[in-house]
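Renewal narrative, Specific Aim 1. Our central claim is that a sequence can be written position by position from structural information alone. The example that follows is taken directly from our test logs and has not been curated for this report. It begins with the structure tokens describing the chain, in the order in which they were read.
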């Protein structure tokens, strides 16, 4: 908890405000709204692919690197590298899906809301942002799931499977990648950007596993990798009509519309954000690790943080063993009497055998 409070204070109190000022303030040196914008154009990041997601993703990468992997993820108990990393499946895919849809719904306040109002011509900007968010999320989800299915088909000997985790993270990747340009790209471009975001997520996730960096929820490929892609995409797809509405007087467009300076400014913006975040958070997390404030004790990790620090487990993982089955079978006649001999009772109340395992 102390580590969480410390790094939250550093990110929200020092790292994030500086990046926000650089790009979103009218006086920021990377802002497109300043009188003398950087490279004559400034960095276009309408809702925060760079300001929010690259900043958070860079912090997450540094934190995961210093923290190290969970027990059993890449190494056995003796510290020997595993030939195949051990998967840690989610506790509830249903809750994971619910959380994904809640995030998607919230994005409609995040992206269109960055127009700040819907009067004085801002209604068009807000509407374009909402459309781009919808199309980008949908195409990101589909492309990520289908590309992963093709990869699985190729490596699994022709067996087609569909990964819901990929669908959910692809959806978020499509949103993240369209956050920078949701108001300055045309709707068809949002579909392309989202479709590319899916494979970007897959490649980023695979690279982390290759490097043995344990990203529990794949926040780095979703936010850092697709935050980078989102800023770059603006440099290619920023359209004159949409850009003129969101940033009146701005005349530097994407590469596909005859521009070039905007792409250069976007790349510089990426480097500035990563550089500033790293300069602050690298020594910070080094100090946290040096003073043993970053990671819990081994026994705490094995038992679980819910039990150790939050007075109970969020889930009941105790499987039925053979004794449990015998006890339940012995109670069935009594329960039958209570239910007046319901013929469907046996099937509905019978305990299914599970591995004899203690958690």
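The sequence written for that structure reads:
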């Amino acid at each position: 908890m102390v580590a969480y409070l410390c790094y939250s204070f550093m990110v929200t109190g020092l790292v994030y405000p500086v990046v926000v000022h650089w790009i979103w303030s009218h006086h920021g040196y990377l802002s497109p709204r300043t009188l003398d914008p950087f490279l004559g154009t400034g960095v276009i990041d309408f809702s925060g692919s760079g300001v929010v997601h690259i900043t958070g993703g860079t912090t997450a990468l540094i934190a995961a690197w210093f923290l190290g992997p969970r027990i059993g993820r890449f190494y056995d108990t003796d510290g020997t590298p595993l030939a195949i990393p051990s998967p840690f499946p989610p506790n509830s895919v249903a809750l994971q899906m619910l959380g994904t849809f809640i995030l998607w719904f919230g994005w409609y306040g995040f992206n269109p809301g960055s127009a700040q109002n819907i009067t004085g011509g801002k209604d068009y900007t807000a509407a374009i942002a909402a459309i781009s968010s919808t199309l980008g999320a949908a195409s990101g989800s589909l492309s990520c799931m289908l590309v992963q299915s093709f990869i699985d088909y190729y490596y699994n000997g022709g067996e087609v499977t569909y990964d819901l985790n990929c669908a959910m993270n692809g959806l978020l990747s499509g949103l993240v990648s369209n956050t920078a340009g949701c108001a300055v790209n045309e709707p068809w471009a949002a579909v392309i950007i989202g479709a590319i975001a899916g494979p970007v997520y897959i490649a980023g996730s695979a690279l982390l596993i290759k490097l043995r960096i344990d990203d529990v929820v794949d926040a780095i490929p979703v936010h850092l990798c697709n935050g980078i892609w989102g800023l770059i995409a603006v440099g290619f797809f920023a359209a004159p009509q949409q850009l003129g509405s969101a940033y009146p007087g701005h005349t530097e467009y994407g590469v596909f519309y005859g521009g070039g300076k905007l792409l250069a400014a976007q790349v510089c913006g990426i480097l500035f954000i990563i550089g500033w975040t790293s300069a602050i958070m690298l020594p910070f997390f080094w100090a946290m690790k040096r003073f043993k404030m970053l990671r819990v004790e081994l026994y705490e990790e094995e038992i679980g943080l819910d039990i150790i620090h939050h007075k109970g487990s969020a889930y009941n993982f105790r499987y039925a063993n053979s004794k449990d089955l015998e006890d339940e079978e012995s109670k069935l006649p009594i329960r039958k009497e209570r239910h007046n001999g319901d013929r469907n009772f046996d099937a509905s109340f019978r305990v299914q055998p599970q591995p004899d395992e203690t958690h």
